[in-house]
User: Fold these one by one.
Assistant:
Number 1:
Amino acid sequence: MADQMKELRKCIESSIVSERNHIFKYTSPLINPNSSDAKAVYYEYDRATSNARCHNYNVENNPNPYGEHVDKMEVQTFHDFLVSKLKCHFHQSRKSYAESRIVSYFRSYDEDGDYDYLIADYEFIGETEHKIFRVWLMFHQLFDISDNIVKRIESKNLIGIPSHLKLIDDNFGFLMSDKKSFFQLKMNKDELHSWLLVQIESFKHQVEERDLWVSLKDEPEKHFQRVFEAFLRRVCELYDVDISPETSTGGGIVDFKVSQGNKSKICVELKLSQNQNVLNGLTRQLTRYQNGEKTDKGIYVVLDSGSPSRSYIELIKYIKEAKSSGLSTGHIILIDATEKLSASKLK
């Protein structure tokens, strides 16, 4: 078993390095457009769209003498091309593809042709404290950061991409060198804020898509805080980030203060959609906590498990108006914890 675990770790680490290189290649035209990687990507895009562009040129310049209408072909934009390369491997998500490659490497088949894993599921997903958990967690963290990069490219908000790439190399670069330590990243407040948003988006995914909503629906706000803390605490420990619940800020008690040193601090406030003061919690409460901690970084997380208050409806309106005015709302995360139908009952 020890040899199998060692091989599994090597397989996951190899996948991390491969994906890291893939991300850097397909963001190179945005970050370093004169690099050899960028030139390779330009050439690849040219080949991928050449047929459509040639077809459209012929349609525009060679009218059909028989009067038949010929439609133009859609030409993928360069940004969409980059997004598709970062998100998909053929028709499968890159994360699913990478996971399936790792898992298939450790399958065995019985006499009936059914397969079992050579390594038990509880070992593989990291319920134990061995090093497999660390690299498996890193594997998922890398794809979370990649998803954040994709969102920035889709929204044409390219400013934060270099910091995400730095985050990747600071976290996973040791796999490409002789470094032996894990998670030595030291983040300023902007990097910590970006990192924490990734972690909370991962929590949101677990609630909405992985049935964690079952443990949160119809529960009080304190329960939401405990589940949220339990989800974040382990990854915070691995990244040497301190998460402190119910911290006094001088202006009141903030649900969580997340920090790495004295200069990198984030205030995080949680609310349920049923709370009658959910809008006030964002516009006044969180701001006051940030002032008390001398930080301009805060994150507001609202869990909707049904029966939202009038104040929650006002919050939704506030977010829409802020977006239409060009204001950033990325620090506001709404999580849908309402009951979901099982896949077998969907029509």
Note: The domain at 189-345 is CATH 3.40.1350 (Trna Endonuclease; Chain: A, domain 1).
Number 2:
Amino acid sequence: MDLHRNLIDGEWVDGEAIANINPSDTNEVVGQYARAGADDAAKAIAAARAAFPAWSRSGLMARHGVLRKAADEILARKEELGRLLAREEGKTLAEGIGEAARAGQIFDFFAGETLRLAGETIPSVRPGIGVEMTRQAVGVVGIITPWNFPIAIPAWKIAPALCYGNTVVFKPAELVPGCAWAIADILHRAGLPAGVLNLVMGKGSVVGQAMLDSADIDAISFTGSVATGRRVAAASAEHMRKVQLEMGGKNPLVVLDDADLDTAVDCAVNGAFFSTGQRCTASSRLVVTEGIHDRFVAALTDRLKALVVDNAVKEGTQIGPVVDQNQLDQDERYIAIGRDEGARLVFGGERLNRETPGFYLQPALFTETANAMRINREEIFGPVASVIRVKDYEEALTVANDTPYGLSSGICTTSLKHATHYKRNAEAGMVMVNLPTAGVDFHVPFGGSKGSSYGPREQGRYAAEFYTTVKTAYTLA
């Protein structure tokens, strides 16, 4: 099996071979990928630093051309890349193909943005002087991505970084090197100059730490756990670098008495359990008013019983495995914690055996829970959801906002009054009405409040806030 190497200064570099294991079939090795070390990270950072002056001053059509070629190839290969994603991460094949397509759309969007870069010219308050405000690249950007969206999240960080003239050192999660390598290979062949994009696959404690310790990285965009995000922020403060953090959620889906029951159940199943619940936008807290509570729980339980949990690439599979043994163990620990706290497990939570050995877990649903329980305070990151019974809309809103996180928040209702009030008063960066809490468009800003996010928003035109700095220039006529 060929070794997929790291990309440093335009060259493919060897490293210790690490097997990429399929969570749907642990007997299958998806590929062998080179593990980078601290020295590799240092070389990648130096290469990005050396490449920055030329790339940041490159013509707009040069950047547009690279991003456009990458977009075209990703979209043309979305089925192939989606299958790779499903095999290495465990998303269903349909979800994998959809995510690959989204990555292509993101590169396409930012290819267009290279041609829409704009500034502003205004007169000074002093006669005869003109003032120009322009955006310029930040410099060398460190990009650290998680395993749960192994092609979309790298795309929505790398594409704007390159669009605005930055150079990149990219460290993907070690669990999912396949999609990261594919993106690097596509961009490399699309014509990126040496050193503009450097791929260093390896341990966070080694490669990630080397990036945090380097004074030559001007900005870091990180998606991952709260604990690691705090370390990224602390290390970045020492170097006075820009930092952008996305760190998870404990998202509520409020279901009011007047909600359409089918819509509410659809939103809950999609938001809480699709992608095996391994989404920072997953609706793991289902806040349900008394009048609809019993009907909602019964209908949701029936839907869960009908879901097909199996190999991610198998036709008909609706939920794949969790990503690895550590995540499976964490899910089971929280299911045990919920029972110990007095919550009622009305469905699921059992390991499943399938034709191929994998990390299969039956979706779990708790009822009779309180918002103070650990299963409602801490991010589980698996196919586990809790129902919280509340009296009315006012209590539902209070419970929904009673969380240290603030990424996504949803409500199911037919009341325009309540929908409007919820959009204004939900303490979250993204609010969904009669839609799942998970699932956002590629051209609009993504991010939250409280412990979920720190720094400027990701995606869309708002990405410029992080990947550029504003320069003000004066000219005497």
Note: The CA atoms of residues 93 and 314 lie 8 Å apart.
Number 3:
Amino acid sequence: MKILIYSANYAPEPTGIGKYSGEMAEWLAAKGHEVRVVAAPPYYPNWKVADGYQWPPYRRESLNGVDVWRAPLWVPAQPGGVKRVLHLLSFALSSAPVMLRQTFWSPDVVLTVAPAMACAPMGWLTARLCGATAWLHVQDFEVDVAFQMNLLKGRRLKSLALWLERSVLRRFDKVSSISSKMVEKLRLKGLDGDAIELFPNWVDTAGVNPLQQPSSFRAQLGIRHDQTVALFSGTWGSKQNLLSIPAAARLLQHRQDIVFVICGDGVMRAELEAACAGLGNVYLLPLQPTERLCDLLGMADVHLLTQSAEAEDLVLPSKLTGMLSSGRPVVATCRTGTELGQVVSHCGLVVAPDCIPSLADAVVALADDPARRRELGGFARSYAEKSFAKEPILARWLGLATRPRMPATVLPEQEAN
């Protein structure tokens, strides 16, 4: 089968959507399918085009059996609001001729990955021109997030943006998202239930598993064996509510047996470094290579999953899958009624998003109770194996994608309200 993936973010980006789009394409290629990808050059999470990709602006390369076509985009140093919109539009425009060229290849399925809703019309058009299944995968409700976090403002602008989004969504044969709450939101946006699929992010449960020996990162950072490590590993962005971690660490400076490790990179680097200045119980680490991921996540005695309240149920953090697979408990800052809260309540502790003392208390509670950590960590690993294992998730998508295409149902406009 010929499968075309249209994703602004792609490998070798180490985190987020680029990681998942890359793993999916390589898995499909390994199964014997012809896979092409139209993507931007790698730039995330540093928000800087990677070395070696600045020129030429258009290129074609082979990565692990996948035929990758690159188109340029504008990358702002400080993304936000209108700049982020222009950033996504720049790729939609530059990649349009590359997508149209793929019609001569005649793919059977065109999978467009959002955010980058600006790319959805061209993904849909390419599919229609060659009679392929048009599939849109929503990793992030970018329009809702932008307005809820005040990156974009204005009642009329919001109404227009949501109307345009709804109009695009309802033209695809299939629209999927990564959590049950996000799937429900697709229904509320007016999609036909038969067109909606749950397609969660995954983890390689064989590659990320509970360590049976101390992580090498402990020796690297000089962390004693009797100290409890509270770890955040992921993108340093505005949705992560990252500044709550050094604030909690400041409250726990008297606890010599608890240390915090924050690993990653992103637009909040300068703010995070400033907030951690002078804190002897906080270590900052850069992004680590994939081959060290199991060792990194296994360093944690407790995983920290902080998140902005405004983004609740509009995104399900992709980093959660690795945390659970590592067999360690999670402390999440979210409300209990959210999907993240429901998952973490079985394998960790849930605290209010804006309550720093509660975050510190949760870390202390788990640091002081090793037996509870082991129990919750066991629940986390079991949940990962049951719900987020890579092979069955991708095999299910492939089975759905290979079914005969049914015409998309466009509902009357009033039914979408």
Note: The first helix runs from residue 16 to 30.
